[in-house]
Amino acid sequence: MIQTQVKADCLTAILNENFLLEPLPEPFRLRPNVSFLITYSEYITYLLSLSKTTDIMLSADVTYLQDLAKTKNFELYPLFLQDIAFALAKEVWYAETFAGEGSVILPFSTNGFEHKVSNYLQSYAQCKSCESVLYAKLDRAHFTGLKIRSQHNDNIFRLAVVLQYMATQTPIVKEINLVYDSPL
Protein backbone atom coordinates (compact mmCIF):
# COMPACT_ATOMS: atom_id res chain seq x y z
CA MET A 1 0.00 0.00 0.00
CA ILE A 2 1.32 3.40 -0.99
CA GLN A 3 0.88 5.94 1.80
CA THR A 4 0.92 9.66 1.16
CA GLN A 5 0.40 12.49 3.62
CA VAL A 6 -1.99 15.05 2.20
CA LYS A 7 -1.02 18.71 2.42
CA ALA A 8 -3.53 21.44 3.20
CA ASP A 9 -3.57 22.78 -0.36
CA CYS A 10 -4.87 19.42 -1.64
CA LEU A 11 -7.67 18.89 0.87
CA THR A 12 -10.49 20.54 -1.06
CA ALA A 13 -10.74 17.69 -3.57
CA ILE A 14 -10.81 15.11 -0.79
CA LEU A 15 -13.08 16.80 1.77
CA ASN A 16 -15.41 19.06 -0.21
CA GLU A 17 -19.10 18.08 -0.08
CA ASN A 18 -20.10 20.27 -3.04
CA PHE A 19 -20.90 17.89 -5.90
CA LEU A 20 -20.83 20.74 -8.44
CA LEU A 21 -17.10 21.22 -7.84
CA GLU A 22 -16.31 17.57 -8.68
CA PRO A 23 -18.98 15.97 -10.90
CA LEU A 24 -16.40 13.50 -12.20
CA PRO A 25 -13.78 11.85 -9.99
CA GLU A 26 -10.39 13.50 -9.76
CA PRO A 27 -7.47 11.40 -11.09
CA PHE A 28 -6.22 10.51 -7.59
CA ARG A 29 -9.45 8.63 -6.84
CA LEU A 30 -10.21 4.94 -7.36
CA ARG A 31 -6.77 3.68 -6.37
CA PRO A 32 -7.28 0.88 -3.85
CA ASN A 33 -3.53 0.56 -3.32
CA VAL A 34 -3.20 4.19 -2.12
CA SER A 35 -3.79 5.44 1.41
CA PHE A 36 -4.20 9.19 1.89
CA LEU A 37 -3.20 10.28 5.40
CA ILE A 38 -4.68 13.52 6.74
CA THR A 39 -3.31 15.10 9.90
CA TYR A 40 -5.38 17.35 12.11
CA SER A 41 -2.76 20.09 11.81
CA GLU A 42 -3.04 20.10 7.99
CA TYR A 43 -6.82 20.23 8.35
CA ILE A 44 -6.49 23.33 10.54
CA THR A 45 -4.07 24.92 8.07
CA TYR A 46 -6.54 24.14 5.30
CA LEU A 47 -9.48 25.70 7.14
CA LEU A 48 -7.54 28.87 7.87
CA SER A 49 -6.55 29.18 4.21
CA LEU A 50 -10.15 29.20 2.96
CA SER A 51 -11.92 32.37 1.92
CA LYS A 52 -14.99 33.30 3.96
CA THR A 53 -16.97 33.36 0.70
CA THR A 54 -16.23 29.92 -0.63
CA ASP A 55 -18.29 27.33 -2.50
CA ILE A 56 -16.62 24.62 -0.46
CA MET A 57 -18.95 22.69 1.84
CA LEU A 58 -17.69 20.79 4.86
CA SER A 59 -19.18 19.20 8.00
CA ALA A 60 -20.16 22.64 9.29
CA ASP A 61 -20.19 26.22 8.05
CA VAL A 62 -16.67 27.20 6.97
CA THR A 63 -16.69 30.40 9.05
CA TYR A 64 -17.66 28.41 12.15
CA LEU A 65 -14.91 25.86 11.47
CA GLN A 66 -12.40 28.67 11.01
CA ASP A 67 -13.43 30.25 14.32
CA LEU A 68 -12.92 26.92 16.08
CA ALA A 69 -9.53 26.53 14.38
CA LYS A 70 -8.40 30.03 15.34
CA THR A 71 -9.24 29.48 19.00
CA LYS A 72 -7.94 25.87 19.03
CA ASN A 73 -11.34 24.78 20.31
CA PHE A 74 -11.60 21.09 21.17
CA GLU A 75 -15.00 20.94 19.41
CA LEU A 76 -13.21 21.05 16.03
CA TYR A 77 -11.72 17.55 16.21
CA PRO A 78 -15.05 15.69 15.95
CA LEU A 79 -15.88 17.83 12.91
CA PHE A 80 -12.52 16.80 11.41
CA LEU A 81 -13.55 13.16 11.88
CA GLN A 82 -16.93 13.88 10.28
CA ASP A 83 -15.20 15.44 7.27
CA ILE A 84 -13.00 12.37 6.87
CA ALA A 85 -16.03 10.08 7.26
CA PHE A 86 -17.79 11.98 4.48
CA ALA A 87 -14.64 11.89 2.34
CA LEU A 88 -14.57 8.09 2.66
CA ALA A 89 -18.27 7.79 1.85
CA LYS A 90 -17.81 10.06 -1.17
CA GLU A 91 -14.86 7.97 -2.33
CA VAL A 92 -17.08 4.89 -2.17
CA TRP A 93 -19.77 6.70 -4.15
CA TYR A 94 -17.27 7.54 -6.90
CA ALA A 95 -15.85 4.01 -6.87
CA GLU A 96 -19.26 2.36 -7.17
CA THR A 97 -20.57 4.89 -9.71
CA PHE A 98 -17.51 4.49 -11.93
CA ALA A 99 -17.07 0.72 -11.39
CA GLY A 100 -13.83 0.87 -9.43
CA GLU A 101 -12.29 0.36 -6.03
CA GLY A 102 -11.88 3.32 -3.71
CA SER A 103 -8.75 4.88 -2.31
CA VAL A 104 -8.31 4.76 1.46
CA ILE A 105 -8.48 8.05 3.40
CA LEU A 106 -7.35 8.02 7.03
CA PRO A 107 -6.94 10.38 9.96
CA PHE A 108 -3.27 10.33 10.82
CA SER A 109 -1.12 11.65 13.64
CA THR A 110 2.58 11.59 14.28
CA ASN A 111 1.87 12.01 18.00
CA GLY A 112 -0.42 9.09 18.66
CA PHE A 113 -0.40 5.35 19.09
CA GLU A 114 -1.15 3.54 15.83
CA HIS A 115 -4.54 1.86 15.58
CA LYS A 116 -5.21 -0.74 12.92
CA VAL A 117 -8.07 -0.18 10.51
CA SER A 118 -9.09 -3.82 10.95
CA ASN A 119 -9.65 -3.22 14.69
CA TYR A 120 -11.90 -0.25 13.92
CA LEU A 121 -13.89 -2.31 11.44
CA GLN A 122 -14.61 -4.83 14.18
CA SER A 123 -16.63 -2.17 16.01
CA TYR A 124 -18.85 -1.46 12.99
CA ALA A 125 -21.88 -3.32 14.42
CA GLN A 126 -22.09 -1.02 17.45
CA CYS A 127 -21.68 2.06 15.21
CA LYS A 128 -24.20 1.02 12.53
CA SER A 129 -26.70 3.66 13.68
CA CYS A 130 -24.49 6.28 11.99
CA GLU A 131 -24.82 4.59 8.60
CA SER A 132 -28.10 6.41 7.92
CA VAL A 133 -26.40 9.70 8.84
CA LEU A 134 -23.80 9.19 6.10
CA TYR A 135 -26.38 8.13 3.52
CA ALA A 136 -28.41 11.25 4.32
CA LYS A 137 -25.33 13.47 4.01
CA LEU A 138 -24.48 11.91 0.65
CA ASP A 139 -28.03 12.44 -0.60
CA ARG A 140 -28.11 16.08 0.56
CA ALA A 141 -24.83 16.67 -1.26
CA HIS A 142 -26.23 15.08 -4.48
CA PHE A 143 -24.14 11.93 -4.24
CA THR A 144 -27.32 9.88 -4.59
CA GLY A 145 -28.21 6.27 -5.17
CA LEU A 146 -25.21 4.62 -3.55
CA LYS A 147 -25.34 0.85 -3.90
CA ILE A 148 -22.25 -0.90 -2.63
CA ARG A 149 -21.29 -4.05 -4.52
CA SER A 150 -17.58 -4.41 -3.79
CA GLN A 151 -16.25 -5.83 -0.51
CA HIS A 152 -13.36 -3.35 -0.61
CA ASN A 153 -15.75 -0.41 -0.99
CA ASP A 154 -18.07 -1.83 1.67
CA ASN A 155 -15.20 -1.91 4.15
CA ILE A 156 -14.25 1.68 3.31
CA PHE A 157 -17.85 2.71 3.91
CA ARG A 158 -17.92 0.78 7.19
CA LEU A 159 -14.81 2.66 8.30
CA ALA A 160 -16.60 5.91 7.44
CA VAL A 161 -19.51 4.83 9.64
CA VAL A 162 -17.16 4.06 12.53
CA LEU A 163 -15.47 7.47 12.21
CA GLN A 164 -18.86 9.21 12.00
CA TYR A 165 -19.86 7.40 15.19
CA MET A 166 -16.61 8.32 16.93
CA ALA A 167 -17.24 11.97 16.10
CA THR A 168 -20.36 11.79 18.26
CA GLN A 169 -18.52 10.39 21.27
CA THR A 170 -17.15 12.91 23.70
CA PRO A 171 -14.60 13.63 24.78
CA ILE A 172 -12.04 12.52 22.25
CA VAL A 173 -8.87 12.85 24.24
CA LYS A 174 -6.23 12.49 21.58
CA GLU A 175 -5.80 12.43 17.85
CA ILE A 176 -6.57 9.20 16.05
CA ASN A 177 -3.71 7.61 14.13
CA LEU A 178 -5.12 4.96 11.83
CA VAL A 179 -2.85 2.67 9.84
CA TYR A 180 -3.81 0.40 7.03
CA ASP A 181 -2.88 -3.10 8.15
CA SER A 182 -4.43 -5.46 5.63
CA PRO A 183 -6.46 -5.37 2.45
CA LEU A 184 -9.84 -3.89 3.20
Structure description:
By secondary structure, the protein is an alpha/beta fold. The protein has one domain. Helix content is 45%, strand content 11%. Helix 4 (76-97) crosses helix 7 and helix 4 (76-97) packs antiparallel against helix 8 (151-167). The mean pLDDT is 93.
Give a quick set of tags describing it.
alpha/beta; three-stranded parallel beta sheet; 184 residues; 5 strands; single chain; globular
Topology diagram in text:
Elements: E1 2-5, H1 11-15, E2 34-39, H2 40-49, H3 62-70, H4 76-97, E3 104-108, E4 114-116, H5 117-121, H6 124-127, H7 131-140, H8 151-167, E5 177-179
Parallel strand pairs: 1-2, 2-3, 4-5
Helix pairs in contact: 4-7, 4-8
Compact summary:
The chain is 45% helix and 11% strand.
Work out the count of structural domains.
Answer: 1
Low-confidence stretches: none
How would you describe the shape? globular
Q: Termini distance? A: 11 Å
Write down the secondary-structure element order.
EHEHHHEEHHHHE
**Residue fraction in strands:** 5-15%
- The tally of strands reads 5
Our Rg estimate from Cα atoms comes to 15 Å
Tally of alpha and pi helices: 8
